[in-house]
Design a protein that fits this description.
The complex is a heterodimer. Chain A has 11 helices and 14 strands. By secondary structure, chain A is α+β, with helices and mostly antiparallel strands. Chain A is globular. Chain B has 19 helices and 32 strands. In chain B, the strands form 8 sheets. Chain B has a 7-stranded mixed beta sheet with strand order 4-6-2-14-11-12-13, with helices on both faces. In chain B, helix 6 links the parallel strand 12 and strand 13. The chains are: A alpha+beta, B alpha+beta. The complex binds flavin-adenine dinucleotide. Flavin-adenine dinucleotide (FAD) binds next to strand 2, helix 2, helix 7, helix 8 and strand 10 of chain A.
Amino acid sequence: MKAAAFAYTRATSVDNALELLAVHGERARVLSGGQSLIPAMNLRLVAPEMVVDIGALAELRGIAIRGDTLLIGAATRHADLLTSSDIATCVPLLAAAAAHIAHPAIRNRGTVGGSLAQADPASELPACMLALGATIVVRGPGGERRIAAEDFFTGIYETQLAAQDLLVAIELPIAGKGSAHFFQEFARRHGDYAITGLAAQAVLDGAAFADLRLGYFAVGDKPVLAKAAARLTGVTMTSSVLAEAGDALSRELDPHEDQEATPAMRRHLAKVLLARCVASLLNRPDLHTGGQA
Amino acid sequence: MSSIRVNPDGLSVLDRPNSYIGKTVPRPNLDRLLQGRGLYVSDIELPRMAHVVFLRSPHAHAKIVSVDAVTAKEMPGVIAVVTGKELGAVITPWVGVLSHLKGLKSAPQSAIAVDRVCWQGEAVAAIVATSRAAAEDAAEHVAVAYQELEAVTDMRTALDPATPVIHASLGDNLAFERVHDAGAVDQAFAVSDAVVEADFIFGRHTGVTLEPRAVVADWNAAEARLTIYQGTQAPHMVQNIAALHLGLREAQVRVVCKDVGGSFGIKVHIYADEMATYALSKLLRRPIKFVADRVESFNTDIHARDHRCKGKIGVKRDGTITAFEIDDLTGIGPYSMYPRTSAIEANQVVNLVGGPYTSKNYRARARVVFQNKNVMCQYRAVGHPIACSVTEGLVDLAARKIGMDPLEIRRRNLIADDAYPCASPSGLRFEQLSHHASLDKIVAMMGYDALRAEQATLRKEGIHRGIGIASFIEVTNPSAAFYGVGGAKISSQDGVAVRLDAQGSVICQTSITEQGQGSESLTAQIVGSVLGVSMDRVRVILGDTDVTPYGGGTWASRGAGIGGEAALQATKILRKNILDVAAVILQSTPAELDIVNNAIVNVSDGASRIELNELARIVYFRPDTLPPGIQPELMATKHFVPREYPFAFTNGVQAAWVEVDTETGFVKLLRHWVVEDCGTIINPQLVDEQIRGGVVQGLGAALFEKCIYDERGQLTNANMADYLVPMSGEMPDIDIGHVVSPTRESELGAKGAGEAGTAGAAAAVTNAVNDALSPFGTIITEIPLTPQVILTALGKI
Ligand SMILES: Cc1cc2nc3c(=O)[nH]c(=O)nc-3n(C[C@H](O)[C@H](O)[C@H](O)COP(=O)(O)OP(=O)(O)OC[C@H]3O[C@@H](n4cnc5c(N)ncnc54)[C@H](O)[C@@H]3O)c2cc1C
């Protein structure tokens, strides 16, 4: 199919982009990497009258350390997450996650900001933002807003972003001593959106968790920061503690049904991920049950 | 490579110095395609060409109350909006039946639906505009009022009295039924030590060609001729059908087939929207282009394999298989496809079940029912994956029941390699197969015993791996028995014309077609070898009904075996003609001369006597120097069709080594092996890649591919994100070996190799998964084997 006719403007600055969005409002769409927007336009699922391309804005691209915070520009590509040494040392979870986003060609174009703005509940990066305690930096007609990742995602393809807003950056606390991460997802094929996935960030205290943040994705209409994690922190890990946490997780999740999985299957896979995550982070193979493939 | 039959005649025309037969030589069309100089239908631009977009029904079954195109017709760039009724002025409807499939019935189908739509995706109006985008804009403004009708979607209830009949004139929803009963089945079951039954379920899937279906139709009113540019596997069939329904003589229709981006059987049929495109060109008197987009490809490219098959096997304690019985049910959509029909797949299932084995007791029923879903028809390895999965699934179940190794039960029941010629329980005649040689070879390739040992060790660690074996037979080189006897004007013979040009190069026109499998290469290899010229001197022309001899094209694994033999025979004549002239020029005899490396040489000492280009110069420009009465004929034509056997059966065996994560239900394909016997191998690399590609499509069926319909007949995953094609990341290494039993029906000895990979891959994987899960006491007989299916079977969810 062919996209419906649209007007196109290449923004010359963030201010220029904001002006264009202010003028065109609901009729406009920001174009970043285009890996979600363009397919949707070609299928005529969306038909914006104006496309505001932010691809040329160098000010939106890049990864930088500011004190104890890591700053990622909204137009930073998924591929950059895989090669950046700052990512590898400060938030390695993002590099682990980025490897699972689609395929190289898509990662070369798709952007971090685009993925968060798209807010696909099966996407890797939104769940990572929850696990990492990210702050999403947004600029709109009323100036700059800084929104906690936990508040940013509101539903399927829905966020706190209004039509006139531009997501400009992400701020992440730099991983400190004792921190560890785990990332795994179950997808039918390499590069597919996950059936269920887990992005976890932990602080270890000897053989126990001092802190554990579990960002689940593809388990409902938005990424979930699992409360069940609380049951696993500050305790001696046993298989019964883990099983209780798994049951709590099952109760807490409200997964959707689609062609890949029933809610029961998603709950089951979420529990499997929990066990694998704990076993891996605490280096306790005894907690990892069943075969692997 | 092991040969189980020595060629009794000694050196053949193919065993010549510098022969290309059996050699991996680069395909002549490779550079052109890799440099982006291919010419696909969507590349074709003609003066005054317009683009058609079809507005398609959103309903599975509905009356068309009205079509309002007033607004659409006024939109920019729009040339015409045409309904089914209006198009009916230039094209007649068709009925997809063949007389040899007794009782097969179907209803008249129109190029564009008239009054009623019968599946989601059937065209209701054609919008013709100056560009595809303009036509899509206008399509959004064509208002169609529908009155929804109840949709028949579940094949299991399609024949129930309470289910609406889709075509009232047919009386019921049964398109075709075949019953077969051979030997004494009941008695055989009665004397068996064990009888095992299972229900096998196969996911409906489709071919997903990289290049979608595409047509440019150009009616030239001044010449009263229609030129059709189309990526088809059968140009002469398209010519015949287009002429028939447009009221033209075949001579008024030219079909040109340039490069084709994958077919797999998808492009061997006549689709309603293609017919509509031909008709629109005639109606509007200008070239019209139709290129299906991905969504409409999913909704209109034929689907296949939607079967539910009950199977039953009897076995004795010593492993002897006593009988097979099947009851197969398949839903084919609302019409039998034209002109090959949608009964062939079920018919093949009946033909092929139990085929590799000695048991003569076989009872089968196959029923083919109508539904309000997209049409189903022949796709790569028609019926074979169903028959192979059922047969090999049953054989494994029988083995398990009596506690016998899956290899052993096959060794005891496969037809012996020296038992040929013989026939299958369904009456198919086998010339020469090599099941045991193939099985021995694959066992060695895979290191069966070591794998079994590894499996046992890993199982103790909670890692569940499994081995699956699947022997199979494959129908290739079909004679007229396939379609011609049923009244279809689909040629089973093929022709090749070869001529020496004025500089000693060869131009070869063949009626087989090229869709990427290497028809062009194998033809050039044969011509070059038989004649004695280098391949770079052979130019092969395919895919043009004005230019090539008349023939069937490339489908049912027939290109090499039939078209290749025609090339061989034509080239033999040309060679003889050349040697006759050479003998005159050189004052020698033909027997003393040979053609080697583009020159006439002495047989005795190999000394070069005259270059072919010099011979051609004399013949074409200085015939006055030849003795009186000599009229050289440097062009030769031959046609070939197998006459002795209706089909050249091939055989083979596949093996899969998989790992199942019993916590997540994911299957990892670790390794796959194939041994097959396609007779003479012309180009080993092409054969191996055909096998690999075929295996990958079979693995797609095993694990990923399924057209998911809801109960209202809506295809819910008509896109590349939700319909999962197999991708390289999940594919295992595929090792291939060969056994060679050439067919004696032709001098070439080649049988087909295009579908063997697809035939047995899913069966091998399913058997392997069940082998891996054997400690859990569960058997899965449904594909695709999704994590959901496996976890459910394991009782985990
Ligand atoms: C085949 C394929 C497979 C894929 N698989 C995955 C996968 O496994 N996991 C995954 O997470 N993603 C996947 N994607 C999506 C990919 O990651 C996209 O890159 C991402 O979702 C969107 O990023 P983008 O830069 O391409 O955004 P675009 O497509 O340009 O935009 C997406 C949306 O966000 C809005 N937007 C973009 N940037 C901003 C901004 N700065 N401020 C405000 N709004 C903005 C746009 O207006 C649009 O609505 C896949 C895509 C394809 C084509």
